[in-house]
Amino acid sequence: ASLDQGSEHPLAESIAAEARQRTLSLSKPQDFDSVTGSGVRGTVEGRALLLGNRALMDANRIDVASLAAEAEGLRADGASVMFLAGDGQLLGLLAVADPIKASAKPTIAALQASGLRVVMATGDGATTAQAVARALGIEEVHGEVRPEDKAALVKRLQAQGHKVAMAGDGINDAPALASADVGIAMGTGTDVAMSSAQVTLVKGDLRGILRARALSEATVSNMRQNLAFAFLYNAIGVPIAAGVLYPVFGLLLSPMIAALAMSLSSVSVVGNALRLAKTRLPEDASPREPGTSAATPQARSTGVPT
Q1: Global pTM?
Q2: How many CB atoms neighbour CB 67 within 10 A?
């Protein structure tokens, strides 16, 4: 928890917050370094610590074989596993289970029902990713993905002719958010993610994607209607003003009537645009019932037998 104080990752913040809630004494880390997509390292009370995934342990030649089986079992339950090493020796592991929001599964189902292809890309282990994907009904999933790999996935989908919307909340998501046609950041995530995205969901609820998409479709439809109105007015008014009816009917369009017609066309366009205020959008997240609380990540730690 002391080491995680220097990280902006949501799981790190949860670990540090839980330690403070338990009134544990935390020390200030020295030489802190965040290894993107792998974990963190630093010195706490004179000990060189590493906290992160297996790739970080392997890069520092830390043998995690003694806890590999337990780690895989925790991943199968949907938990994210981080190994802790100190002074070159494996000390234990920390498993953090971030409960799936109740709104996530119906939102994904609604997106899929509308014909969208939903892809999950996460830095968590493949086993954890598959467990979460099964719970959410997502068929295409990529686990153990580094930040640059997420951006590469977005570009690969774009090269196949797809328009890609990317939703994320962490520093590791920033490259992909910037590369996507539409980047969607969670308001509860990191500042880097929000600055890289074009859309920020203030409440951090995935149902905001449904609302934004519904509003976008209604806006585009309204724009097309307004263009049709403008074309119709001009298609009728301009020939009459030019005197096309004069040879047959002796009819000319008075400048005063022409000015009135143009004003009415503007009024019709504005009035049609105001209908967007009455557009019915998917409901926001409903308030929690009395006596309930927000779901928070649950952590479990295991030490290396001595």
Answers
A1: 0.66
A2: 21
**pLDDT, tens digit, for every residue of 207-263?**
889 998 999 999 999 999 999 988 888 888 788 777 777 777 777 777 787 778 778
Distance, in Å, from the CA atom of 8 to the CA atom of 26, rounded to the nearest integer, reads: 17
Spatial separation of the C-alpha atoms in residues 127 and 142, rounded to whole Å: 10
In this structure, which CATH number among 3.40.50.1000, 3.30.450.20, 3.40.30.10, 2.40.50.140 belongs to the domain 104-210?
Answer: 3.40.50.1000
Give the architecture (CATH level 2) of 3-98: 3-Layer(aba) Sandwich (3.40)
Residue 187 phi, psi dihedral angles, 5° rounding: -65, -15
What is the spatial distance between Cα 285 and Cα 103, in angstroms, rounded to a whole number?
Answer: 7
If we measure between CA atoms, which residue out of 71, 74, 81 comes closest to residue 131? 74
Q: Where are the domains of the chain?
A: 3-98, 104-210, 211-278
